[in-house]
Amino acid sequence: MFDFVDHIWSDLHPILSHFPIALLFFGGALAVASRRWPDLTRFAVLVLVTGAVSTLPSVISGLVAHFPYEESSLHGAVEQHQLLAFGTTLLFLILGTWAWRTRHKPVPGVSTGPFLAVLAVGLILLTVVGGTGGELVYGHGIGVRGVNPLLDATQP
């Protein structure tokens, strides 16, 4: 049951990647809600900044995880996911900085239309990054150990 401990280093990227996904989507929902309920603004800023910062360990662990595939036929698919993740991380670091620097203004950045528009683009990109990561795992079997006993081995 605790076999995962033996593989913790190779599984670090999928573990760390789910934190920014959850935090950034939750922070986005709070930012939208803060327009109606301004008391949520400080919480929205905190969650968005935490989500933005949490992208860094995810990207670093992704860089480490991609090395075994550097010379494989999957290199192109891994690199596509990697480049999308770099761009999305940069966008969220900019958004996190924007949210943090404007948190004490009469109308904090997270409550403005331009911020929410860029945030929406970021969340769409984050969804695409997650989708390409999922395709690497479920479509190409990257990082999968063992065989799913529910699937027939003859299926493509």
From TrEMBL:
Q: Which Pfam families match?
A: DUF2231
TM ranges are 12-33, 45-69, 81-100, 112-131
InterPro entries reported in the protein's UniProt record: DUF2231_TM
Which keywords are on file for this protein?
Membrane, Transmembrane, Transmembrane helix
Q: Tell me where in this chain the DUF2231 domain is found.
A: 12-145
Q: What is this protein called?
A: DUF2231 domain-containing protein
Organism lineage reads as: Bacteria, Pseudomonadati, Planctomycetota, Planctomycetia, Planctomycetia incertae sedis
